[in-house]
């Protein structure tokens, strides 16, 4: 089973710029959030959207910040313990109990780190230091050379939202912070590590191809994957030593998805679950969030809010113009 401990309370942050001693202490922070919102909530800056305050707040994006929180955990050696960050903005160094866990450079993805060796029973201290995006951009320009850019700033040299560095409709506010939820996940036996899904048309039928990878720990034993779409269920037995499985599900005569004004846009939920090899009512773990690009469209699989063996994908079967190829996508979530 998988256990989750949300780490969204008790956070503080501080400025690592020695030239600003008034900001060196522990300041209350909100997670998810960003440094601009935290400074504003603590009345330490003026509203950057008023007048030309974005100019007086420009120093924020050029400064290093550290976020901290303490949490209690039970260091169960029989389980895998992972820190999961749904979103970090952007150039960050993560430490647990004073030991470096990882460094990140991409705002647009989820990060998952095995901290089983660093987690201790009782109180643990987690810190995330956000380095200046400007400083990182300067390093990248020195390494790669100059690259043309529509706006001043290094937004074209890193995986960070480009509008931070200015746009014709908004100010230049180079943010930093834990902008999506963070949690500690503990699991044993097995879980779905990754799933890749594609859809094609095979004659008049829809063909859904699923490739799943498993993460295992300890004596997980045999298990099975159960997938269901459009009333069609498919079960795959996974041997004790197997780490992945691929299978197809054929959907008879699916309704096609059409662009706006050209027809309907029917959706087909796809449910995938991993189950114990001996019991149909004992879920092992749940799939992780993933984002895949297929045929130029986005397929997004989202995790359910509460621990559950299910994670759904909404699929669109579509005949692409002039190609006859189907596409698969989902509405924003």
Automatic annotation (TrEMBL):
It is an enzyme of class 3 (hydrolase). InterPro entries: Beta-gal/glucu_dom_sf (IPR036156), Beta-mannosidase-like_N2 (IPR054593), Beta-mannosidase_GH2 (IPR050887), Galactose-bd-like_sf (IPR008979), Ig-like_fold (IPR013783), Ig-like_GH2 (IPR006102). Its EC number is 3.2.1.25. Residues 233-277 form the Glycoside hydrolase family 2 immunoglobulin-like beta-sandwich domain. It comes from the Bacteria. It catalyses: Hydrolysis of terminal, non-reducing beta-D-mannose residues in beta-D-mannosides. Residues 11-180 form the Beta-mannosidase-like galactose-binding domain. The keyword NAD does not apply. One of its GO terms (biological process) is glycoprotein catabolic process. One of its GO terms (molecular function) is beta-mannosidase activity. Keywords: Glycosidase, Hydrolase. Belongs to the glycosyl hydrolase 2 family. PANTHER family: BETA-MANNOSIDASE. This is beta-mannosidase.
């Amino acid at each position: 089973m998988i256990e989750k401990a949300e780490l969204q309370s008790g956070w503080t942050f501080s400025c690592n710029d020695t030239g600003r001693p008034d900001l060196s202490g522990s300041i209350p922070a909100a997670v998810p959030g960003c440094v601009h919102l935290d400074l504003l909530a603590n009345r330490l800056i003026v509203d950057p959207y008023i007048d030309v305050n974005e100019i007086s707040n420009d120093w924020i994006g050029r400064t290093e910040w550290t976020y901290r929180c303490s949490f209690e955990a039970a260091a169960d050696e029989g389980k895998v313990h992972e820190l999961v960050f749904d979103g970090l903005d952007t150039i960050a160094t993560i430490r647990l109990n004073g030991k470096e866990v990882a460094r990140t450079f991409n705002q647009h993805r989820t990060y998952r780190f095995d901290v089983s060796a660093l987690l201790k029973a009782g109180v643990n201290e987690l810190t995330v230091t956000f380095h200046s995006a400007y400083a990182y951009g300067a390093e990248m320009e020195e390494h790669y050379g100059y690259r043309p850019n529509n706006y001043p700033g290094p937004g074209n040299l890193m995986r960070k939202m480009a509008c931070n560095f200015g746009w014709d409709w908004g100010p230049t506010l180079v943010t930093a912070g834990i902008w999506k939820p963070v949690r500690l996940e503990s699991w044993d036996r097995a879980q779905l590590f990754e799933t890749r899904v594609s859809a094609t048309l095979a004659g008049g039928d829809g063909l859904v191809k699923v490739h799943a990878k498993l993460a295992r720990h300890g004596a997980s034993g045999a298990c099975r994957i159960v997938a269901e779409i459009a009333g069609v269920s498919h079960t795959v037995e996974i041997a004790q030593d197997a780490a992945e499985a691929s299978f197809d599900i054929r959907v008879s005569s699916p309704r096609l998805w059409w662009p706006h004004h050209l027809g309907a846009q029917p959706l087909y939920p796809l449910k995938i679950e991993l189950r114990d090899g001996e019991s149909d009512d004992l879920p092992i773990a749940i799939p992780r969030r993933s984002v895949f690009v297929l045929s130029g469209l986005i397929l997004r699989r989202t995790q359910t809010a509460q621990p559950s063996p299910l994670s759904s994908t909404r699929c669109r079967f579509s005949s692409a113009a002039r190609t006859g190829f189907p596409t698969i996508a989902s509405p924003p979530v």
